[in-house]
Amino acid sequence: MALRKRNSINANGESVITVDGKEVVVATMTASISDNGTNIAKYIQDETVYKANKSEVRADIAEFQDYVYELEDERVVEE
pTM of the entire structure? Predict the structure, then answer.
């Protein structure tokens, strides 16, 4: 019998737009980085606000993707 040790990094992000003075979570992003690779998902929470603010939300999604790349790079350096 042998112990197998694994670790992973999980990251979460939200794209938040202010509508009529209220913050609305328009999209959420999740990522899991493990020994088996990286999985990134995005979920549009409010289609109406997303359509009206696509460029801002897509910029947030791109920023999250860059953040995940940074986490991947840090993980490679640590290994």
Answer: 0.86
